[in-house]
Specification:
heterodimer; A: alpha/beta; ten-stranded mixed beta sheet; globular; B: eight-stranded mixed beta sheet; 5 helices; 11 strands; 17% helix
Chain lengths: 218, 237
């Protein structure tokens, strides 16, 4: 069975290390904030200028001056700090953010990512994604393994305009966890009940499969 | 002696000198921390052919989106413009030009512009459409592109409190691009929620020193919220 959005988010949260500063993109990555392990402390960075993002507010706490990078109302966690956008991107571009997790249209086995522009469709912009993939210490992509027509999103070479080059370290999909290194996808885990064959069929880029590929643990 | 009294009492005075075809840098992120009254004044003046540099272009009928209604904007320099049907329509009609710029690069372009740095190298955008046609250089084995900084004829910004010297503080995430925009305008106009007596703000709490500010006006703000999400909801995504 392929994973639900919540299950992908749960698996993403297993990548969070104690004491890490983490930037989560819109969508599934943001959901992962709900599954941080109880025995670790992480701090979420929101690139509009907040380090230490807390939960969504109660009705009484709603404050128009307090939003996240998705322009949603938000609160500040204990230990938070607030700063301007140049400072925010200095911490991103300067390599101070430990991990960023973001979605993508395509990833290839060279670690390139395409996530912001489909030629012929309206282009809304890249926001902070190009800065994040150029600057964070570790970059993980979450997405479905194939599109709704069954076409693989893990390619030999991205076909869409890129967000960043040679920057993706790991991919967590609804079917598998893969590392990207030496010009290949390395299958390291599969979703419970998903066969290696299915993953192979849905991966176009070079795929390296070890002798034993364990199922993900939740 | 006018001294350092930068406070003006009308929006006409606040935006005096704005002319067609000028470049305006605007603070704000989405609808958060935007100079609502100054934008309304530009709308009222019906200045045309503007190049507007701001992370976003408001929404239909609010924020910088207001300036689209009479087609006052010729070119928009932004990182994300997806919230606005009128924007989309004018872009598709070829009535509006957009230069999409990564958010961190945009912030740094303003910061550098205000600091007298004409250009800087960044890894952001290398190998992507953003890097096309730009000078590249390798430092310590990594590729970077050269990005030119931005200055404006006007900068319009929003802060929480200011004194008559133009010293100001921002509130929460309404800070965003405002401090960088403040530095990058030939004329920087600050709209605030409250003007306080000199000395009321501690020198060490000032976010933007008054040297960057030319005019201060007190406004009233609607502070529209783009996406109100409450704690009972896990996510709207």
């Amino acid at each position: 069975m392929s994973l639900s959005r919540e299950q992908i988010a749960m698996r993403v949260a297993q990548e969070f290390g104690d004491g890490h500063y983490i930037n989560l993109g819109i969508g599934i990555p943001t959901l992962a904030a709900n599954y941080v392990a109880n025995d670790i402390e992480v701090m979420l960075q929101s690139e509009n200028g907040l380090l230490g993002m807390g939960p969504y507010p109660t009705k009484e706490q709603v404050d128009a001056d307090m939003i996240n990078a998705g322009k949603e109302t938000v609160t500040a966690a204990t230990g938070a700090s607030i700063f301007n956008s140049a400072e925010s991107f200095a911490m991103i571009r300067g390599g101070h953010v430990d991990l960023t997790v973001l979605g993508a249209f395509e990833v290839d086995c060279h670690g390139n990512i395409a996530s912001w522009m489909i030629p012929g469709k309206l282009i809304k912009g890249m926001g902070g994604a190009m800065d994040l993939v150029a600057g964070a210490k570790n970059i993980i992509v979450t997405m479905t393994h194939a599109d709704k027509h069954g076409n693989s999103k893990l390619l030999a070479q991205c076909t869409l305009p890129l967000t960043g080059v040679n920057c993706i370290n790991k991919i967590i999909t609804d079917l598998a966890v893969l590392e990207v290194k030496s010009g290949a996808f390395h299958l390291i885990e599969r979703a419970p009940g998903v066969t290696v064959d299915e993953i192979r069929t849905k991966t176009v880029g070079k795929l390296v499969i070890g002798a034993d590929v364990p199922e993900m643990m939740f | 002696m006018a001294g350092f009294n930068k406070v003006v009492d009308s929006y006409e005075a606040a935006m005096a000198g704005l002319q067609d075809n000028m470049t305006v840098i605007a603070g704000g992120f989405g609808l958060c921390g935007i100079p609502e009254g100054l934008i309304a004044q530009i709308k009222k003046m019906n200045t045309k052919g503007l190049t507007v540099v701001s992370n976003n272009c408001g929404v239909d009928g609010f924020g910088l989106g207001l300036l689209l209604e009479e087609k006052q904007i010729k070119k928009m320099v932004s990182s994300y413009v997806g919230e606005n049907a009128l924007f989309e329509q004018q872009l598709l009609n070829g009535e509006l030009e957009v230069e999409l710029t990564p958010q961190g690069t945009l912030a740094e372009k303003m910061r550098a512009g205000g600091a007298g740095i004409p250009a800087f190298y960044t890894a952001t955008g290398f190998g992507t459409p953003v890097g096309e046609g730009k000078e590249t250089r390798k430092f310590n084995g990594r590729d970077y592109i050269l990005e030119e900084s931005i200055t404006g004829d006007f900068a319009i910004i929003k802060a929480y409190k200011a004194d008559r010297y133009g010293n100001c503080i921002y509130r929460h995430t309404a800070q965003n691009f405002n401090p960088m925009a403040a530095t990058a305008g030939k004329i920087t106009v600050l709209e605030v929620e409250e003007i306080v007596e000199p000395g009321a703000l501690s020198p060490s709490e000032i976010h933007t020193p008054g040297i960057y500010i030319d005019r201060v006006i007190v406004g009233s703000f609607e502070k529209r919220i783009e996406r109100e999400i409450l704690s009972s909801v896990t996510s709207n995504q």
